[in-house]
Amino acid sequence: MARINLRPWREELRAERQRQFVSVLAVVFIIAGGLAFGWTSFVDGQIEYQKSRNVYIQSATKALDAKIKEINELKKKKAELLARMKVIQDLQGKRPVIVRVFDELVKTLPDGVYFTSLSKVGDRLSIKGVAESNNRVSALMRSLDGSNWFANPNLNRVAAMKDRQDSNQFELSVAQVTPDEEDEGGKKK
């Protein structure tokens, strides 16, 4: 048998396999590095995209907050204007009432009674005056009670005048009411 030395061939085969292993290992590292770089780039891109969306949402939120504030201010102005309009309408509606009140005061005033002072607080009229007798004050109170424009007359004070013995000073208060349209022409219900 011939003597063949297989050692150099085996060593070459082993060296070749070693080179293939190192090259495969290098390719795997390169691919792994590429994949890691691609993944981090993708994640960084997604983070930047989300940050830009967050910035957009914040700016849109600030714009909407400004619009909401403006809308609230407009609602407040609207409410103030409506309140003013209501006050004006109430004043316009009550303007003829004072004329009717004075007219009714004249109608209810009996002979021998004179008013010296008239004041109004809320819906309550305070009347000061002079009457020739207590009966005349009673007649005034009955007239006020029978009127559609007044209710609940209350006599506060009656006193004889010092300089005129035949006259009395009086103070009374009466509630002013606004009658229904049906009551204005005639009698109370």
From TrEMBL:
- Key word Flavoprotein present: no
Which residue windows are coiled coil?
57-91
Q: Which example biological process does GO assign this protein?
A: type IV pilus-dependent motility
Keywords, sorted A to Z: Coiled coil, Membrane, Transmembrane, Transmembrane helix
**Transmembrane domains' residue ranges:** 21-42
Superkingdom is: Bacteria
Q: Which InterPro entries match?
A: Extracell_DNA_Util/SecSys_Comp (IPR052534), PilN (IPR007813)
Q: Any idea what this protein is called?
A: Fimbrial assembly family protein
Species of origin: Oleiphilus messinensis
